[in-house]
Automatic annotation (TrEMBL):
This is SIMPL domain-containing protein. It comes from Paenibacillus hexagrammi. Transmembrane segments: none annotated. InterPro entries: 26kDa_periplasmic_antigen (IPR052022), SIMPL/DUF541 (IPR007497).
Length: 226
């Protein structure tokens, strides 16, 4: 985890009187980089047939094979969850007429992976046993609040740096403890990886999680005096 505080930039700093004290308002920002340690993969099977029964049968067989293969890969059963199951009627349109084409059955599984280096193997295994769609891969952290609180601490220090810079420019002195602090940001959700819809190559699929950027921002009021 590496601190990456942003450089100060001109922001709103409005002197005003409140209870006899001159105050200024600044925005503080902080960012830290952290390696993700959890992946959330959504993949599954789309089956099409003129017969609904056949489409359902084919789809169920493929999904069952995928789940069995993932269990053999040591993915815990409780980490495999159905997130979508739908049946749609397919049509063709010719000369302004709607013509029945068949049925489409979609079954998507969400796999939560605590061993992030297995992400590529999970995708490849699922495809080998019948998966024909990968809708998303998201990387996140098991305890993101730790990194976020670190970024929040940097944001507060950044607000003091800005207030001090403004005060020095104005030739005044600023009190180092803000009289009011307001949190502006919230923790963000997982970062999506825009995966191709299919992984059909025989070699292992390279999935690169990279690093997450966790940011925080606050609004702080500082008292200053001549």
């Amino acid at each position: 985890m590496h601190d990456q505080p942003r450089l100060p930039y001109p922001s709103i700093a409005s002197p005003f009187f409140s209870g006899g004290h001159k105050t200024m308002e600044v925005i503080g920002e902080g960012t830290v980089s952290a390696a993700p340690n959890k992946a959330i993969i959504v993949l599954g099977v789309i089956s099409e047939s003129i017969s609904l029964t056949e489409a359902q049968k084919e789809n169920a067989s493929s999904v069952t094979h995928i789940i069995e293969a993932l269990l053999r890969l040591s993915v815990p059963k409780e980490h495999i969850q159905t997130t979508q199951y739908s049946i749609d009627i397919q049509y063709n349109y010719e000369d302004g007429k709607q013509l029945f084409r068949g049925y489409k059955v979609t079954h998507l599984l969400q796999i939560t992976n605590d061993h992030i280096d297995m992400t590529g193997s999970i995708v490849d295994t699922a495809v080998k046993y019948g998966a024909n769609t990968v809708s998303s891969i998201q990387f996140t952290m098991a305890n993101p609040e730790i990194a976020y609180n670190h970024a929040l601490s940097i944001a507060i220090k950044n607000s003091l740096l800005k207030a001090t810079t403004i005060a020095r420019t104005l030739g005044v002195t600023v009190h180092p403890t803000p009289c009011l602090v307001q949190e502006l940001s919230r923790m963000q959700g997982p970062t999506p990886y825009h995966a191709a819809p299919l992984y059909a190559k025989s070699e292992g699929t390279p999935i690169q999680p990279g690093e997450l950027q966790i940011s925080a921002s606050i609004k702080a009021n500082f008292i200053y005096y001549s």
